[in-house]
Amino acid sequence: MKLYGLEPEVAGGFGENTVVSNLNNVRSKRERPIVTHLHYEFSGWLGDEILETTPCFIITESLADSIQRSELKGYTFADVETSVTEEFEELYPGRTLPKFRHIIPQGTVEVNGDNFKNWSGDDFCLSQRSILVVSEKVLAVFKKHQFDHCYIAELDDSNGQ
User: For residue 120, which phi and psi values (nearest 5 degrees)?
Assistant: First the structure.
């Protein structure tokens, strides 16, 4: 099975209503944030249907529907609050954003350079460095949607499987 590390477009970041449940540990121990409510504030957008603000990923409702109709495993969805900055309004006057969903990878994998190991077997994984790692099946679904500004790196199985 081939896996791919994805670096989606960053079209904004955490809005003021984002809730991080472990904020003190993020600050003092540099733990990965656990986001219990994601507010994604857009400052731009090139149109891709998957976007990132580390360690969170959002996808359009259209892409979420395609994922739900597939047999992919290793994800959950949560609601996401979206808003736009003044800069966004100046760049894209009158542009209406589609509805987005927060996709939360449930699988795990260790990534070192272009190699992976200790893969949980899920189609959606989050690496130890918050990289979204997906299977070939996920990539096939994504490529049926707007997906032009995402960096994709093929990963090799360092266990030789």
Answer: -75, -15
Instruction: Decide: 98 and 145 in contact? Cβ < 8 Å.
Output: no
* Assigned token pair, 80: 């996401």
Distances (CA, A) of 139 to 9, 33, 41, 67, 147: 15, 26, 26, 11, 10
73, 123 Cβ separation under 8 angstroms:
yes
Paired tokens of 7: 């670096």
Q: How confident is the model at residue 28 (pLDDT cuts 50, 70, 90)?
A: confident
Which of the residue ranges 53-62, 63-72, 151-160 would you say has the lowest mean pLDDT? 151-160
Answer yes or no: are the C-beta atoms of 100 and 61 closer than 8 Å.
Answer: yes
Q: Does residue 160 have a pLDDT over 70?
A: no
CA distances from 29 to 25, 43, 44, 56 (A): 5, 29, 32, 19
